[in-house]
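Below is how a single chain appears once it has passed through the pipeline. First comes the sequence as given, then the structure the pipeline wrote out for it. We keep one example in the README because the format questions we get most often are answered faster by looking than by reading.
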Amino acid sequence: MRTVLDEGAIHAYISQGLLTTLIALSFFTTGAFAATLTCSFLSETTISTDGAWVKKEMDFMKLYDMFGDGLSLPLENSLLGNLDTGQPFLAGEVERGKVFLMGGDYGVEGKLIEVNGNEITIYDGMCNIGFG
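Resulting structure:
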């Protein structure tokens, strides 16, 4: 027995298969870093490793000179769910130190923590997460 397909049915079958293939490929090519984190820091606090408070600065120009328009870091997709927990988590590391994030009612709070000798410097700020 021979089945005869008309030209329209063949075209629809090919189009559907091509669309399914393209959608499947898009999932495999997006990568683990589809999100980008950008943080702007508002203050700097330094404490010693033995717990003494050394200084606190809120000099916007100093922070701007250090970070420019903000710290930018690719964020793994697997970490995005951590923002909903309301608990701080390690988002990644940059040359200056470790970046921690915490989601909350007012957005995403970020801290960059740098250890240099006997001093720990904590930069506090707010962060945005962009996609694409």
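The helical segments are 7-29, 60-67.

See the next section for the split statistics.
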